[in-house]
């Protein structure tokens, strides 16, 4: 068996992320790798002393990609204190009660909500919080001491996840998911390259933030005109993975709350979202009811403290509506900034589930309070199962630590671990090779590999091209991009000797000339064959008949068109078919205006498309499709997307439905590309024809 690297993306001596990749605006000569933002170089938690944080100095780093912040977290204290926030507290007005199987009436909304199983959210870092004073007796059950080994085992488990996650606030769902700008309160003069920043990190002002949570905030940036938001407007919030909405309700303190349950190889993970918007009028009514129920009562076990500003906002809105005016959208949002999911809803990775708002009595502005938690290994208590919060970035630091394109921990440094957030969606639009390198490393940890890569000429990228593609679980594969024709042939011939063949090949014309990308996998039929320099067009069929014995028994794995000395040629990949009479066929020269009709003609006759490539005839675009007979266990879906974002969002939804991307073709244009993708769902997943 050959020894090979998982993904080779060419030179990384000067990795560049162009603005066009992140914001969709073509601005050459501007790169984002390590320029003008902070890297955290020192946070330490002592075992008994309060957190001591020092400023994180900016570092210009064009060579290392990415530059990883470093955080050293010391041994943890016992887990007896849970601070003021458990995620949900039974004593708060309108909160989730902790007794399973009963019904609870929300005093503010007047609605009934079923009880949840007792969930007590706390933090595995376990830092004492002297500001809260002694805990009430009802809130201090006997909890076994969490030893250093228990904590480390828990963090090892959550960081060795088996499914990809995405951040709840995404920088660009069609590109880099994880980019975060510096916190303006800490670094007001730094350059901004994302509209999103973390206002409060895992550590905030010398103590844990909540039970180990984050506050995401948004700020307008002139660079991102296509998705620009007013500085204080509600901003989109996404599901971090495929899952089910476990709980949705209003809480006087936390506002509109969602809890989404995810399954990670049998281990449940909860994502908590606080202060969500749910329609301007609805949020105003809940705030008005809160003032009426709690305004004269003062802070107590059933009412949160109300600030004068909160009461003034509510009274001012009431007067505005009485005079026929409209609610201020920077305070209350609009009718469109609402929740899009309810209890029991199935969500997919990256799905828009709502908007961050300013609901509840929190007066710190529009933001998303977010946390992730998993069951504690110390078992149940009298109050229920403890759920420990953890840092999905793996940093366990202050807000300055989370600025960068891919904030990530460094394993082996204190409590740090690698980020569980993916740099790119599993089915992703064009991205620079530097980000591709990060994505390859990330998905390799999950045991996922590339199934297809589409190389696209991109003048703004440092290498002259960008890559789109798909990562999926399954058999080992090798992927490489940025090859010349000679390099492609050399690698392919070497792998053929070991029974490997290219499952997909892509070519693009760049300022470097013709550039190739390929994904190789082990032959399933046992007779792989690759033919170079084949003629394109109707004559290809006769050419193959003359050179390949028993062509009808062969599977057409791929046909990649390319230009050679001004003439259109093809690389043809064949293997022995596993299914008799599969009926592989191909068609050249399809005009763009006729492509959708050609796809429909194929799919309505009991066939499916296994490969699609575009090629040029002079200045004109033409398409090639390869098809075969569809098996009874298979269903096929085709996506034609005019821009990056629709392709990525539709792909994520199809993944959740069990459909996997089979091929991808991208035609570059000024509007963000034209994406064609085919998805196959097989009810017999172990069988692949």
Explain this structure.
With 689 residues, the protein is α+β, with helices and mostly antiparallel strands. The longest helix is centred in the middle third of the chain and has 15 residues, at 280-294. Mean pLDDT is 74; it is low at 1-120, 123-143, 221-229 and 685-689.
Percentage of helical residues?
10-25%
Radius of gyration: 27 Å
Oligomer: single chain
Roughly what is the average pLDDT, rounded to an integer?
A: 74
* Share in β-strands: 25-35%
Number of helices: 10
N-C termini distance: 24 Å
Structure keywords:
689 residues; alpha+beta; 11-stranded mixed beta sheet; 4-stranded mixed beta sheet; 10 helices; 16% helix; elongated
